[in-house]
Amino acid sequence: MTEATDAPPLPRTATRRASRRKRAFIAVSVALLAFVLVVGGAGWWAYSHLNDNIDSVDLDQAIGTDNRPAKVAPNAQNILVLGSDSRAGANAELDHDDVTGARSDTAIVVHIPEGNKKATAVSIPRDTLVTRPECKDQDGRTVRTENRVMFNSVYSIAGPACVVKTVEQMSGIRVDHFVEVDFAGFKELVDALGGVTVTLQKPISGGKDDLNLDVGPHRLNGTDSLKFVRTRYGYGDGSDLGRIGLQQQFMMAMLAEIKKQDAFGNPARLYKLADAGTKSLTTDSELGSLKGLADFAQSMKGVDPDTMETIMMPVDYDKVDRNRVVVAQPQADQLWEALRGDQPIPAAAKKSPASGG
Question: Residue 313 — φ and ψ, nearest 5°?
């Protein structure tokens, strides 16, 4: 392969086009931020409409400023990405309205290092037993601390700000931003892309959502993509740990699809993606506008998502309930310490005693 230094320089137009693709791709890697970078050019109505799509939460007000972890590496960024399975509104139709409440079905800490060289995405298993800190729920009522609760129940009991607080306490990492994507919005986004292609190394059959896919490539629409990322009982050993692998695989496949389509060359498609993406978002107040999202994406433009590392927080099976997992030590502490200090992650910190899947 010819080295980059031997290749002729790209024409200026190609360079600008590559730069636009890179800005978009970076933003999406922290959950859909790419779809807002240039929408201001569509006019005030479009800007106002998309801006109003975004919900936000003031973390400082919801969590407070006391007892939060200190920012150890000031030029690194940590973003908590949540996929919520609320059964309210349009989401109820996706579950046939047979389940109530809401949980954070997916939780990923995305670490953007100083210099924006290589991002790391750490998935937190939803079945992890954790200590929920004292929090204020979304109505301002106090929710007392409790031990050995499932991680995904924190969202349903006390809302996304309490999930942020829980992650901060268990990791010692200061969460700079959070981005929440709901199920209905996720489905609409995939359909706006025209589908996403995934390649399976193991088949998926049956399970709660009755998704059946053979080994090999599959083009998934929004409904089947949602089934794919929620698949548990029809894949591998039926555990949540196996589902995490599917979620990470789909995230990378969606990034590849967005990069392939180069939406910046098609304003109509860009607006469609932006509308679908922003309607599915809840963010912290600093990112809670098109300008906030675009400014943040611009600040992350040095990240190359092709090198993003996806790992799972190390866990072990709970000795009391084998259907639950607990944080594995010392691996988890080594992982969080490395990310907190913006240092390389030791190989031992990436190994989970409970592998699943």
Answer: -55, 130
